[in-house]
Amino acid sequence: MKTHAPATQRSGHILVIEDHPDIRELITTILQADGHHVASAHDGDMGVQMAQRDPPDVILLDLMMPKLHGYQVLQSLRANPATQRSSIIVVSAKAYASDKRKALDMGAVAYLQKPFEAAALRAIVRQHLNKAVVTFWGARGSIAAPGPGTLRYGGNTPCVTLSYGGAQIILDAGTGIRPLGVSLQAGAAGKPLEVNLLITHTHWDHIQGFPFFTPAFVPGNRVNVYGPHSAEKPLDKVLRGQMDPEYFPVALGDMAATITVRDVAMDPFQVGPFTVRAAYMNHPGMTLGYRIEADGLVVAYATDTEPFRALLPTVIRTEGVAEFGRGQDQELVELVRGADVYIADAQYSPEEYAKKTGWGHTNYVDAVTIAIEADVKRLVLFSHDPMHVDAEIDRKLAHCRELMAAAGKSIEVTAAAESVPLEVFAR
């Protein structure tokens, strides 16, 4: 049996939870030869304890085991913030479709049938090591909109995480950053956290959750904040102003974590494994969009923005202004060019935009057009209007998919929904 590793494979921390000693040893041998660090547990209870003590990148989980069977292990690990980011692959001899569906419904990312080929094991582990996960903690624009009509897509204002290779980057600090902070701190299990946060701009809906971000209050934690220098003030001063005693009872300087605030220049910069490039968006004030790359994976986050091609003809009545606007929009097109995921401002319908031209947001038809021009792989509709209930977002999503099909494009279109992760696989 050949056990050499593929040249492009990223090594990872793997936990094998398997009661059969021969299979446990076989899996361990194959993956160690590929350069992975492999730990193993011989029953479900031991596996849960090991995973929670030292969360792995990938867990290979049998279903039929003593003490705790595989479904119980899945349930326990998915309920614990410390192991929510681990990719759990069920490896089982059970061939029933109902068992496969149940495992996937409970949080497994894949199901590998026993007996398996070594190549199949390597491939599935490699795939899930070389993936990123985008999670939406808040997708609502302008103001939080909790209530029975927004349960599926959520009511929190912008906050998104991108996780890859054991690292994570946070995009924006709207009200969604509060539940994210609770989850991060619980998952830290008492260990110091280092958090990296990119802010697009300092309108309230993008920063109002920061004073409630739990990791910022914990001694020993580090919180690195990146964002634009406003028209008059550095980012640090804007954040301090938000927490002035007139508005909030705790000052930024009273937070117990070490907080570092950096103004973003236009040069690409590195945040852990992520290379970040910024570009200015067409939105009131100084607003950035971000292109984030890691090992060939590309996620573009470009909200809030208003296409020049739509806005300029309404304020300048000269020949050629629409063409000039399209030229100005090329900076946005190039920022998101070829992205695996393009998280796009799609706040308004065309009818709403006609009444709100100049407010700094995009109608969803223009979002589709830009996604097509940029040849992205997946378009995510974001910055949902606070007046839009779930059923209205469903209609917006359906219309965007119809527009893509009519254009003959295979670009996948989804609508950002809180707590619904998107997996992005390396090409």
Protein traits:
single chain, 427 residues, alpha/beta, Rossmann fold, Metallo-beta-lactamase, Chain A, 2 domains, 7-stranded mixed beta sheet, 24% strand
Please write out the topology.
Elements: E1 13-17, H1 21-33, E2 37-41, H2 44-53, E3 58-61, H3 70-79, E4 87-92, H4 97-105, E5 110-113, H5 118-129, E6 131-138, E7 159-164, E8 167-171, H6 177-188, E9 194-198, H7 204-207, E10 222-227, H8 235-242, E11 258-263, E12 269-271, E13 274-280, E14 288-294, E15 297-302, H9 308-315, H10 321-328, H11 330-336, E16 341-345, H12 350-355, H13 364-374, E17 378-382, H14 390-406, E18 412-415, E19 422-425
Parallel strand pairs: 1-2, 1-3, 3-4, 4-5, 8-9, 9-10, 10-11, 15-16, 16-17, 17-18
Antiparallel strand pairs: 6-7, 6-19, 7-8, 12-13, 13-14, 14-15
- The portion of residues forming beta strands comes to 15-25%
Number of strands: 19
Biggest pleated-sheet summary:
7 strands, mixed
What's the helix count?
Answer: 14
CATH top level label of the largest domain: Alpha Beta
